[in-house]
């Protein structure tokens, strides 16, 4: 799926690839303002998903990743009692930085990135 999508230009003429890239990167806003990294990508997705299939697909991937990483984090916290949770939490922390960056780069190129360990809650 390597192409530009000129038929829909969200947010005052922004290119669709740039918008999808920003959706992925908006997850990092939570490092600056708590919870905004959850709210912002969801709002970006919900307000534009009906106008563009590609925005819908990227948004679903992002929301599924946020839910999946939350579940993995809870499992990691539970497993810290068995010591294996600490490496799991460290790995998860790295992946919550790496996956959105890869997704943003792929979106900017016009490609779709499926987060590898994503649980598909929203189809």
TrEMBL record:
The keyword Glycosyltransferase belongs to this UniProt entry's keyword annotation: no
Transmembrane segment boundaries: 28-48, 69-102
Membrane topology type: Multi-pass membrane protein
Subcellular location: Membrane
Domain of life: Bacteria
Record key words, sorted: Membrane, Transmembrane, Transmembrane helix
Pfam families found in the cross-reference section: MamF_MmsF
Name of the protein this chain belongs to: tRNA modification GTPase
Source organism per UniProt: Nonlabens ulvanivorans
């Amino acid at each position: 799926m390597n192409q530009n999508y000129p038929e829909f230009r969200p947010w005052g003429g922004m290119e669709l690839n740039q918008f999808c890239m920003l959706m992925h990167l908006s997850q990092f806003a939570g490092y600056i303002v708590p919870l905004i990294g959850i709210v912002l990508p969801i709002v970006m997705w919900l307000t534009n998903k009906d106008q563009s299939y590609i925005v819908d697909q990227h948004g679903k991937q992002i929301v599924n990743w946020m839910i999946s990483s939350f579940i993995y984090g809870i499992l990691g916290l539970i497993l810290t009692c068995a010591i294996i949770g600490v490496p799991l939490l460290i790995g998860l922390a790295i992946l919550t930085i790496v996956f959105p960056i890869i997704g943003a780069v792929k979106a900017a190129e016009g490609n779709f990135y499926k987060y590898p360990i994503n649980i598909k809650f929203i189809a």
